[in-house]
Design goal:
Four copies of one chain form a homotetramer.
Chain A (H helix, E strand, L loop, with lengths): L5 E6 L5 H10 L3 E7 L3 H10 L4 E3 L3 H5 L5 E4 L6 H10 L3 E5 L6 H14 L3 E4 L6 H11 L6 E11 L8 H4 L1 H12 L5 E7 L9 E8 L3 E8 L1 E13 L3 E5 L7 E15 L2 E13 L7 H15 L7 H19 L5 E2 L1
Parallel strand pairs in A: 1-2, 1-4, 2-3, 4-5, 5-6, 7-10
Antiparallel strand pairs in A: 7-11, 8-9, 8-15, 9-10, 11-12, 12-13, 13-14
Helix pairs in contact in A: 1-9, 4-5, 5-10, 6-8, 8-10
Chain lengths: ~350, ~350, ~350, ~350
């Protein structure tokens, strides 16, 4: 690390924490000063991998140490709010894993607290640090695909089954954050249907529709009970169409020069359509790990005071959509305004 | 053809009619006696391809000729009912393309008429004659995948845009017929959301959810405004999972020995799950053209009087689901009982 | 057909003959007047599919009929020469399936005879009528991929096992014709190795290398004993690289903006390389059936007297390469000059 | 690490060294005690990633330290022999990256020296520690695919261009080691052809054929000048066929129940064949990193004195094949006995 590297603590070393720890460890601008987790076996592994890092079962140690100026919270979602709040109160800069909190009220409280404490509050919407998503944003913003018609995302996999949080809150935040980022808008209303198979009251699969301004329809399918790992987003525009397949290493983003146009006027009420099917283009995408970009950005914000790209407000927006979707889920798919 | 081959007329030679004509022509048990279409250029092509087949712009010629005992109706959906009715009244056996009709009332009228006329009424649910679908049915029926949890289908493509019928009625009938066939049940309720981009009042994309008895959730995505041709159905069971990809020639049906099981009892409210991820098996699927199977079955039913696998009642069930889905679509996705 | 459609006879209705028959039947400019085959059951099928076409077990009937002006020869390779010769002597225009003959001497004799008889002699190198191959030729000719470095083709499958002709003569002619067409050159020398598993003396798998002028190396793998159908050609140029995958419907031709460049001078004997890895482009390829293009071109040549793109000389070049490769095969892979 | 963890030094931190260092660091039974490399910038990175590891530009420091009992040599191939020899003489256990040496004589000298010094000599044939390769070995050994007919491997990529060693020595060792491991035999003769495009005298692409006892033919294509990363091995047996695709995460090993059988006797010299095309099976493959298995095995051998699976003799066999192939390459593809 550099002499003036920022000391960071990672709180929570379950599924995602190891990735945060590895990235902060690898960043020259940061120092992985401390890792906290309740599981002693996990901590022993941390000690072996990062012998100069302090390990502890008590995350409050991270908050107590003055040399630690930033913490990353990767604990179960239900604890995000309490730990982030405590960290901000202790004067730390805080990166919270997605979703930022379980309610909009909690997210708002964190935003207000960070403001008051003059500390960085950032949410770990990893895909907003993904070069493939940046490329798609650039294409849409430049008008390359014309008017956005609709988009749909499939994020399914086998495993990482949760018992305290459903697939909506566990998996869909990624796609909600991507959609809000790409469309630069909040949905007007959402609707969600799901089904419970493994743990009472916890949806294993969720189908979510979001209606954005301008007749833009979006659909998200989230499941941890699926035979294959799929992470695909399709965006259909009036001029071009984009398929983003995150598990395809050679062709992450495909731009299809395809579209349907109405020909002339409708004679006798019948429209004629011209289907245009042209070339496909696969732009080169920078292969840096999105989480590395995210961690580096957090460190940069801590150092300079600049506002993170995925600040508290950004985290709040996603939580608002999830809250509305949860309400729809509980009402059997009824449309809920955001 | 054989000396006692059944004379068949194909009414409608647009998108699907040529496939019906080709198959009846190739079947030894049938003779393609007549093709009717309003477009003279199409008829000229028929005359060139099948020089011994009568061509006409007046489909009533088919009904008038006594040697023609069976007709296949492949006209626009809005005309299915009228033409099929007329054909039955003329004493013909009738194969109607999917969907059988635009309303349950019409479908019921056709069923009653066929009964009264003692003629075969069959609906062209092609996928119920697809060896891949037969294989999946066999696996589910044998309990191979355990309890069916949920299923989802993507049927999207670019092209074949309609102006008089939306993606629900044009594309989704395939998946609805497959689901009803595989699950051997009617959905309790359905919900559909869609969006209109090309022709006023005609949804180009539709997201449909169906709730079957026993907590089986199904989802269908249908669109003619998509960059790629996708025809995929995933079925998740408690013991195994199946992916049916109709555009994959080598691996149409994949059986995943995968599942998630609860371990022991929940301590302190926390469940433990064991994810099992075993082998994948790809059974050999007979490569006969489904439409050939369908046409052969129709001829067989005409010849023997046996009831078709996809009889009028089968066509009616699909129409009932579509009707309910259409109502949901018009009510912004509200749940509608079937 | 048109009134002045060309009457064509197809001789040989085994594996490829049905495709020729179907295409000549479908072409407005041609009339499938006669099909000859030794197998009565096949002929019965022809009679059913094409009721106005004459069927016969005696191909000489085709040669005897004055109204038949052109014949397509799709018989076993060992009979190509004799039947084509007889047909030319009878004053017919002749399309011969690949390879044109079993020896260069035979091919030369056919060329001389066609010249003397003033009749069209064309060889059925289908891939030279394939829009994907045309596109690649266009790219190479325009200098798009820079200098061609090397190329390799895999053409393997399970089935269509031969007992009288090895994989070199049965499968490799396609790739040899493509390579000669794309590179516009004859190889200086060839080398082939193979192995025999099913029929004594008949190689089931062959690995062929061809050295073209300008240090262009090419490699062809041909086998009918392989688990999957692969038809892939990769062409590596100094500026770009092309992959042509004939079984990929969405991305038949991929153009990779990739290359390796030497940086500056070698210091201390060590070179530095810069690897450039840019976008991938998938041009839209016209989807017309190559065999239809081929059949239409044959009819056009018969009608106008123009020289076919794949004339006798073109067929001879491929036979010369195969003859040299066969000699290498018999000498255990020794290099043989063409 | 454990208290009695084995101290390991990694010599060479270029392309492969970092992977060795990471794995030794992660293994509880080992301690990454030292990393040596000539490049100070690389060493700075090591110091940051592994703050308790000694870094040095002088690899002899590793040999001088008594607490370091084992070294892994990942330097340029031309230095393998000298450094491994020096390390053995210093009493260290040695893991050498593939290929073990540049000549059989050097490999033999290392084997003799290790014997004499009673130290472990192991070669880093990573694929012999790959669970997918283990699975294939198991299938072949159990007779599952019948008699092995032939095998072919494609190992191509863009990048990692070498100036001092050709694609034969740099890339093909993987496939040669896999083939020798699976077939449990040495080839009788080999033949290789290649082409030079980037650095004088260094083949960028090589096509290698190997003839094994029992009429087993094998083919290896190696290139660092290719648009896509391909790592595929196909093995055709008399009863079944296997495709091993190392870059496919879901279906690394596919077992095809496919084969061709001769039917009855040849009448009139004509054989009849029956093509059997059955199911495809994809066995679950353990996902542990092969290099981790390899490093753990090395540590285990150092600790217990057991002979490594890829001992010096194993490394020698691969070098012998490469030497013969190099001679063939220099003689334009002439067959060379091994």
């Amino acid at each position: 690390m550099m002499t003036n590297a920022i000391n960071v603590a990672v709180i929570g070393y379950g599924y995602w924490g190891p990735n945060l720890a590895r990235n902060f460890h690898q960043l020259p601008e940061a120092r992985l000063a401390l890792v906290a987790d309740l599981d002693a076996a996990r901590l022993a592994e941390v000690a072996r991998l990062y012998p100069t890092t302090t390990v502890t079962t008590d995350y409050r140690q991270a908050l107590a140490r003055p040399e630690i100026v930033a913490v990353a919270v990767a604990t179960p979602v239900r604890t995000h709010f309490a730990i982030a709040q405590e960290a901000l109160l202790a004067g730390k800069h805080v990166l919270v894993e997605k979703p930022l909190a379980l309610t909009a009220a909690e997210a708002e409280a964190l935003i207000a607290l960070a403001e008051q404490q003059q500390r960085t509050l950032m949410v770990g919407h990893t895909f907003e640090y993904n070069p493939a998503v940046w490329k798609i944003k650039e294409l849409i913003a430049a008008g390359e695909i014309g008017q956005v018609y609709y988009a749909y995302a499939n994020r399914v996999n086998l495993g990482r089954v949760q018992w305290d949080i459903n697939a909506l809150w566990n998996i869909a935040p990624h796609d909600v954050s991507i959609l809000l980022y790409l469309l630069e808008a909040m949905p007007l209303e959402v609707s969600a249907r799901g089904a419970v198979y493994l743990s009472q009251g916890v949806e294993d699969v969720v189908f979510l529709t979001l209606t954005f301004p301008g007749n833009v329809l979006a659909h998200v399918q989230a499941s941890w009970l699926d035979p294959s790992k799929v992470r695909r987003l399709t965006i259909v525009g009036s001029e071009k169409m984009i398929v983003y397949d995150d598990v395809d290493n050679e062709a992450k983003v495909k731009i299809y020069d395809k579209g349907v146009y109405r020909k002339g006027n409708a004679a006798y009420g019948e429209f004629q359509f011209r289907v245009h099917s042209g070339d496909i283009h696969i732009p080169r995408i920078d292969m840096t790990e999105p989480l590395r970009n995210e961690c580096a950005h957090f460190i940069e914000c801590v150092r300079t005071g600049q506002r993170p790209r995925t600040d508290g407000a950004c985290g709040l927006r996603v939580v608002r959509v999830l809250e509305a979707a949860q309400r729809s889920l509980e009402r059997g798919g009824a449309s809920v305004q955001v």
